[in-house]
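Quick one: structure for this chain?
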Amino acid sequence: MPAEAGGARQNPSNLRMGPLQRKVVDCRRCPRLVAWREQVAREKRAAFRDWDYWGRPVPGFGDPDARVLLLGLAPAAHGGNRTGRVFTGDRSGDFLFAALHATGFANQSTATDREDGLRLTDCFITAAVKCAPPANKPLPAERDACRPWLDGELALLERARVIVCLGKFAWDVAAPRPRPRFGHGAEAPAGRYTLLGCFHPSQQNTFTGKLTAPMMEAVLRRARALAEAL
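Got it. Here's what it folds into:
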């Protein structure tokens, strides 16, 4: 395994992110999430029986000088919880990274593990909850307990101006109160950020056509345009 979680060695500027990432990886604040992520890592999925699962919280990764932040819900049990990098090794990530590559934010369209050569430019990806939750549904208390880690990432991402919220859960975490209505392509101010709504690239959305590649690429291009204008 790499020395740093989440592909942290991709840029010398990641020295700025490293201390926070190490604290995230060591977090055990939520007993239910700790028990679940470690159970999944022990029992594994048959297709990944030869993998040494990560089984810990998954910090964000990408360009520490990014102007665009992508915010997801949580690592997938057999995706980020296996590989140690959010959106890596699952179908949602396959769809997401293809779109990021098509719009110039990623140097390749695939993401399989932390040493696969993936590099992000002007983009940083993280999740509102850093541990894989049972049924992919964090409890409100778990969401709130994890919020300081997201706040820490935002504080270090000094150039970030646009937050692309991948799904309503992420939108509700990032949006100010009273919360503006979530929708694909929705835009809302949130302090120094502009929020952009995007349907989550889950199989439920991509397999049914609720979210298509052109739809996601349009949101990412809009994010770039907003970041350049701000």
